[in-house]
Design a protein that fits this description.
Elements lengths: L1 E2 L4 E3 L6 E3 L4 H5 L12 E7 L22 H15 L22 E4 L3 H19 L7 H4 L3 H13 L13 E3 L16 H4 L1 H8 L13 H20 L6 E6 L1 H12 L3 H4 L8 E7 L8 E8 L1
Parallel strand pairs: 1-6, 4-7, 5-6, 5-7
Antiparallel strand pairs: 2-3, 4-8, 8-9
Helix pairs in contact: 2-3, 2-5, 3-5, 8-9
Length: 301
């Protein structure tokens, strides 16, 4: 199941919402002042897999279909998050959690483009099963079309002796329009050869401010992404327990988030390699921001 709203989105099973119309100033002035509890949010930035396009084609917001590797890509995500996400039934908690605490289901936020949203649906189907212990909770239309995901879900059900206590309610996949890739406008779907060397050189001479015909500039794209990222941070700052956020998106989106988090110039972030089916990870301490860390960039699955 996917859920989308224009101004507000539910982020957790408890009905947490955020307002995307909030300004950057509001974000910076509304952090939590409580120091009684150390909260450590875990953020995973996932780039999508291969798309069904010939090489040498320009695509950003072009809504490309996924390839035959999609099933394997979903399984790669499941395998990764089985060992990197924390689940309520776990008895041992990693060192990055300062104390044992009740956990919500991981929250999945996705770009609306199919190459991301379909991955998000596949992963959410696995989480739904993980938290419910019931086949009825799995998104059947997603699983039934994917034999690898179907097999993974069946194996997980078989291994459960009983359902975990205090199971949180399921959360739908959250669609965030702001986490789309850059809009190349009239260049979308064209080969780089047909776009021509002259236009490409004009772009390369002003990477941040060149505006693609009927599209956007890199600086405008970055502002769009960073605004949404800062609103999400504001919402996380209000939480009283650890949240696990998985954002399935695009290379440009991940670079913008990392650029903001690491406080490096956007142009320098263009040198960060973000491969398809890779995960970059952050730890956020809203009440003690000096402890926040980037714990990995471009971990390939």
């Amino acid at each position: 199941m996917k859920q989308e709203t224009n101004s507000k989105q539910s982020l957790t099973s408890e009905g947490l919402t955020y307002d995307s119309s909030l300004s950057t100033a509001q974000v910076s002035n509304s952090t939590s002042t409580s120091s009684a509890t150390i909260i450590n949010h875990r953020i995973f930035l996932v780039r999508h897999g291969d798309v069904d396009l010939p090489s040498g084609v320009c695509y950003g917001q072009l809504d490309c279909a996924v390839t035959s590797s999609f099933s394997k890509d979903v399984q790669k995500l499941i395998d990764y998050f089985q060992t990197h996400c924390l689940f309520p039934e776990q008895q041992q908690y990693p060192q990055e959690l300062p104390y044992q605490q009740e956990l919500d289901s991981p929250i999945i936020i996705t770009s609306p483009l199919k190459r991301c949203a379909q991955l998000a649906e596949g992963l959410q189907a696995y989480f739904d099963n993980k938290y419910s212990g019931s086949k009825d909770a799995v998104s059947k239309d997603v699983v039934s079309k994917d034999p690898i995901l179907k097999d993974a879900v069946s194996k997980d059900l078989t291994s459960k002796a009983s359902s975990p206590k205090n199971i949180p309610s399921k959360s739908p996949v959250q669609i965030n329009q702001a986490f789309k890739e850059i809009n190349f406008g009239q260049w979308e779907g064209l080969s780089w050869q047909s776009i021509g060397q002259k236009k490409i050189e004009e772009w390369n001479n002003d990477l941040l401010n060149f505006t693609f015909p009927d599209g956007e500039s890199a600086s405008g794209f970055d502002q769009r992404v960073v605004n949404a990222w800062q609103v999400l941070q504001q919402q996380l700052a209000q939480q009283t327990k650890t949240q696990q956020i998985i954002i399935i998106c695009h290379a440009g989106v991940i670079r913008s988030i990392l650029s903001d988090f690491l406080q490096i110039p956007l142009q320098h972030s263009l040198t960060l390699q973000i491969d398809k089916m890779s995960v970059s990870s952050l730890q956020l301490f809203p009440n003690q921001s000096a402890l926040s860390r980037c714990t990995g960039i471009n971990h390939q699955l």
